[in-house]
Design a protein that fits this description.
Blueprint: H1 6-22, E1 27-31, H2 41-50, H3 53-56, E2 59-64, E3 74-79
Antiparallel strand pairs: 1-3, 2-3
Helix pairs in contact: 1-2
Length: 84
Amino acid sequence: LHGYKLLDAEKFFYNFIFKSYEQSYRNLLVITGKGQSGEGKIRKSLHTWINKSKISKLVIFYTHASLKDGGNGAFYIRLRKNFK
């Protein structure tokens, strides 16, 4: 999502989550970037996006990534199992 405008990032994020769930992917890495002075709009918005009802049902948990995977500028997201 790093480099996208906020509205485009939100649309891309939703599509990414739904497609990942449909393909039974469970462990995701989402790179938001940190933004200027750690105040990134996308990074701050991710929490709101995940907690919207259509997404929250698919996500078990999310947390900041380790430093090797992007630290505060990235998130691990764990999706529920898709019982096709």
